[in-house]
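Exercise: predict the fold of this chain.
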Amino acid sequence: MSVSIRGKLFSAIARAAGNVNPIVVKEKKKNVVKDLRSMEPLFRHYFPPIGYRFEKSDSDGVPTEIFRPKKDGSENVILVLHGGAYISRMMFYYRLLNKRYSKASGGGTVVHFDYRCAPEYRYPCALEDTMKVWNRLLKDGYSPENIIIVGDSAGGHLCVNLMMKLHDLHMAQPRAAVMMSPWLDMTASGKTYMENYPVDPVFGIKGKTIQPEEVRDLLMSSELYMWLGDNDRTDPYISPVFAEIDDSYPPIFVSAGGNEMLLSDAQTLVKKWRKAGLRAELYVGEGMFHAFEIYQIFPEAKKGLQAIFAFIREMYA
């Protein structure tokens, strides 16, 4: 299956502007934190579409945004956990999916929040903030069975962390989880970390072959991992690819780009879910890059989002 012209264009843009490979960062003297946060000041003000209301709130100290229909709303909730390597805060483009999430959830409420990020704050700060928002939803009367969590990249990691924490606390799980390009292996041990290194426009280097130990050594020194502090990279909360999963977890939908190094993270998670007898769907965007769906406007992103919304609708049926 060939990649669309617009898909190729966005991949090229990702390679030129968003590549965070340590070699590229060093050669171009890039500041990873500054680059990942560069879009935060854009479009600070958000005006919801006609028929919806938007408000900023607070969940025990965690900045929270709530988007819901003005009428004919449901009790369903889409809780969005944003990505950004645990470095960048929530970007404006996450809000652009609010209406579609609400419609897919049958008129549900869409909740975003800004968890504390590295380098100022490290693990487990983001998870602690996520639990505060989760508990706020329960306090407000929302039932876990009506909440679907959605996350991309580090937000996908946070989705798994939240489910693990709820499991360990013997609390009810969300109805389901959707994860786009979840970042789950801080040891970079999956096979696609090597196989896709020459084709990944975000984390790799075009056409460059490299030995497994070189990949790991490079990634281990990357600023992308500053969020984990001195924690053991094989700790299941740090690298959920090493977590034990039982049949108490909810259904999941996991997607990844066919050209991204993190593809094996998604594949491993789905295998763990299925081994536990749980429903787990894997969607691979052939020829695509990391978290490609959030950009919405090219054919492959649209197709990936259609699959996500179809899953959400089915979960609420």
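Check your answer against the key: The CA atoms of residues 123 and 228 lie 5 Å apart.
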